[in-house]
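Case 275 in the screening queue. Each case pairs one protein sequence with one candidate compound; here the compound is 2'-monophosphoadenosine-5'-diphosphate. For every case the pipeline is the same: read the inputs, emit a complex structure as C-alpha cells, and attach any notable structural observations.

Predict complex for case 275.
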Amino acid sequence: MKKIYGVIGDPIAHSMSPVMQNDCFQRNDINAEYFAFHVLKESLSDAVKGFKAIHLSGFNVTIPHKTTIMPFLDEIDPLAQAIGAVNTVVNDDGRFIGYNTDGSGFLEALRKEIPSFIDKNMLLIGAGGAARAIYYTMAHEGVPSIDIANRTPEKAEYLVQNCPYPVESTVLSIQGAEENIAKYDLIVQTTSIGMHPNDDRSPICLDGLKKDAFVSDIIYTPLETKLLQDAKQKGARTQNGVPMFAYQGALAFEKWTGVLPDTERMQSIVLKQLG
Ligand code: ATR
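Case 275 output:
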C-alpha cells in the first residue's frame, strides 16, 4: 500500500517540501506520497490524532507548531527535547517520535564546505529558535566553543545558560561582535535581518573580516543577503540557506526510509522552486 507523508504548518501553501520530498520518493522507487497539510493552531491536537488514526508514516512540522506539537507525541529525541522544537515525526509502529533535523541539517550542509568546522573560531548571530537549534546541535556534536551575538544579549545569555551540552561561549552585543570580527573563521547568521522584503539590511558590519573566513546565512529569500554580499566583497566564502533546507529534508527522509537521498539534487529542486 502507498505510504503517506506530509508537512503541517500555517501558512503552508508555499512550502517547498512536497516537491522536494516527492522527487526523493520517486528517485528511490519508494511507493509513497508527501502532502502539505494546512493545520491551524487550534486544530493541532486533532490533526495529530487523525494522522495516528490513518497510520500516516511520518511528517514534518513547521511554523507555528514546532514547539506546541511536543506534548502530543509519544517520544521526543533528547536533542529535540533540549532544543525545544520538533520538525520531523516518525511513525514507529504506531508511536509518534519527534526529532529535530534543522540543527543537524545545518551542520551537515556546513560539513560539506568545511569538514573541520569543529575547531574554527565561530560566531553565531541571533538567539531565536533557529539559533537555538544550531547552537545546541553544535554543542551536542562536540564543538568546544561558540560565541554568540544578539540585539538582546540577555536572550543569548539565556540560550547559553540552558544548553545541556558542554560548550564555551562569550555572549556579545552586536557592537561587541563587530569589534572582534577579525577573530572569527566562521560566522553563522540566524536572525530575520536581510530576509525579503527587508533585504537591504545586514545584522552586522563585517569591516575587518578575515579574508579566509566563511560566512553562512540561513536565509534563502533572497539567495544572497546583504551580509553575504558584504562577505564576498571581503573575499570570504559564503553559503546561503538552501543547503540547510535541503539537508534538514534529507535527514528527515533518512529517518523515514533509511535512505539518505541525493542532497545536490534536492538543492537544485529548491533553487528551481525559488525561481
Ligand atoms: P526564529 O525562530 O526564526 O529564529 P525568532 O525566534 O523570532 O525567529 O528569533 C528572531 C531572531 O532575530 C532573534 O535573535 C532576534 O533578536 P532579539 O532576540 O533581540 O529579538 C533577531 N531579530 C529580529 N528582528 C531583529 C531586528 N530588527 N534587529 C536585530 N535583531 C532582530
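Case 275 observations:
- The chain has a mean pLDDT of 97.
- The longest helix spans residues 242-257.
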